[in-house]
Structure formats: structure tokens, C-alpha cells
């Protein structure tokens, strides 16, 4: 079984981005609030395009939003 998982800092970035809501971020990148909630909680991995759109919405590099931990157990 493969190990590893992606974590993210979306909640922190939303907080520092003027308390941006999940709905506002979703609107900015073209997905639903529910999708943002699922990505933020680690239940869903975004497409590469969505990941770049999220980073762009916060004006930060991709690796400031998403991190790969090869030792973490993979989500099913």
C-alpha cells in the first residue's frame, strides 16, 4: 500500500486573507463551498488546476498551500 498524503493550509490562508469564507474562495476559483470544505478537511484532493487556482487566489506559491507528507497514511 502506498503511503503519503497531502495536507493544506487553506483555513489559515482564509483567516489571514480577511476571514475569506469557503463560499467566497469557491466562487473565486469556480467550485462549490462544499468542494472547498472537502479539500480543506483533507477528504478530497483538488485537481492540479484547482490547486493552482487556490494558490493564485491567495497570491502565494503552490507549496505554501499544499504539502506532501510521504510518511503519513494515505486517505482512502
- Count every beta strand, where a strand is a DSSP E run of 2 or more residues: 2
CATH class: Mainly Alpha
Helix/strand structural class: alpha+beta
CATH topology: 434 Repressor (Amino-terminal Domain)
Oligomer designation: single chain
Number of domains: 1
Radius of gyration: 12 Å
Sum up the overall morphology in one term.
globular
Largest sheet: 2 strands, antiparallel
Helix content: 40-55%
String of helices and strands: EHHHHHE
Strand content: 15-25%
Low-confidence stretches: none
Order of strands in the sheet with the most strands?
Answer: 1-2
Number of helices: 5
Distance between the termini: 11 Å
Average pLDDT figure: 91
CATH superfamily: lambda repressor-like DNA-binding domains
CATH architecture call: Orthogonal Bundle
Short note summarizing the structure:
The protein contains five helices and two strands, in the order βαααααβ. With 76 residues, the chain is α+β, with helices and mostly antiparallel strands. Helix 2 (22-29) crosses helix 3.
What does this structure look like?
- It is a single chain.
- By secondary structure, the protein is α+β, with helices and mostly antiparallel strands.
- It has one domain: 434 Repressor (Amino-terminal Domain) (Orthogonal Bundle).
- It has 5 helices and 2 strands.
- A two-stranded antiparallel sheet has the order 1-2.
- Helix 2 crosses helix 3 (33-40).
- The longest helix is centred in the last third of the chain and has 11 residues, at 48-58.
- It is globular.
- 13% of the residues are buried.
- The mean pLDDT is 91.
Amino acid at each position: 500500500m502506498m503511503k503519503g498524503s497531502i495536507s493544506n493550509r487553506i483555513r489559515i490562508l482564509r483567516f489571514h486573507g480577511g476571514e475569506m469564507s469557503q463560499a467566497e474562495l469557491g466562487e473565486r476559483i469556480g467550485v462549490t463551498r462544499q468542494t472547498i470544505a472537502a479539500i480543506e478537511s483533507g477528504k478530497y484532493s483538488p485537481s492540479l488546476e484547482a490547486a493552482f487556482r487556490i494558490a493564485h487566489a491567495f497570491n502565494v506559491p503552490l507549496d505554501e498551500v499544499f504539502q506532501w507528507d510521504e510518511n503519513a497514511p494515505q486517505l482512502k
